Amino acid sequence: MGNRAAAVLALALALWAGAQQPDEACVNCPTVELEREGKPIVAVKTSPDDVSDVFVIEYLDVQTGFLEALDPDARRARVQGVALWFDARTRLDPALQTGDFVWAVYNPDLDDGGGRAYLLELRPHPEAEPAHHALQRFLIYDPAPYRTRVRFGEDTEAYGHIAQVERVKGVRERVVLGDGEVRYLADADRFEVNFSDGDQAVEVVQGKSRAWGRRLDYDNATGKARVTGPIRLQRAGEKPLSGSSQALVYDLDEDTLTLQGEVVLVQEERTTRADAAYVVESEGYAYLYGDPVVSKGPDGEVRGRVVRYRLDSGELLVLEGIEAVFDDAP
């Protein structure tokens, strides 16, 4: 590798201190940290460098502004006066047209010989004043049996094999966590990441609750991490609980999990269905919402629009819109 990527990779790998077991807490592991209102978001590489040496920092440029030219045949573009070239690996939004306001990520070190910088990403951007930004992009890859660990605040952690963290100071900070393929492209002197959509690629742990999904996308502007489904949920305890939904959202500010879409909770012989479930693990409750929420067990059926669910025992309390309670006992 050459230029900035190689130098930074060597520095990053020097931070590694000793081999660790999968998911074991380690000291002086390479980390990337963000912060939201005093709460840390920390991504940690856990595998030793003889398993994976991928802890890379890229220093890139971002130009927001109007797309002044786009020539797919010549593979050239111009954004707010910045001349760019691209290839098949560049991520271009296919709907873009000249005149659109865009977000362009490029590497000025990869010049095509004609004064054009290499374009990595071009996508629409909410219109604002044109601006130039410096972007830091961190890539962590921990192959099985190791996993990259991302800690949100003090009580919630997420795990996956690939983490990509982007920081544009004062503009954009995000974390993408999942599974997929990481390849080094020698001709471009950079690593390419292709996230897969395999089930259960990401695990989220909060208290007694564990949830699995395909990919986690965290936006530090909102403090929310969305995990795409299908979601599988398990909660340990005297009466273990299992569940599923279409998506999951973790709220860092509230320290809560929200299951969204076709929510199903199963605890012993009772099955409860809802449109959404707001899980407050610290209180031991979930608040279920539906039209209606329907809970069926050996002692009957309960329906309501808002239901409080005690996670340890499965005890239900209809808070709003009770429809019926049936006792199936003879």
TrEMBL record:
GO terms for cellular component: cell outer membrane; outer membrane-bounded periplasmic space. It comes from the Bacteria. InterPro entries: LPS_export_LptA. Residues 1-19 form the signal peptide. The keyword Signal applies. The keyword ATP-binding does not apply. GO terms for molecular function: glycolipid transfer activity. GO terms for biological process: lipopolysaccharide transport. Keywords: Signal. This is OstA family protein.
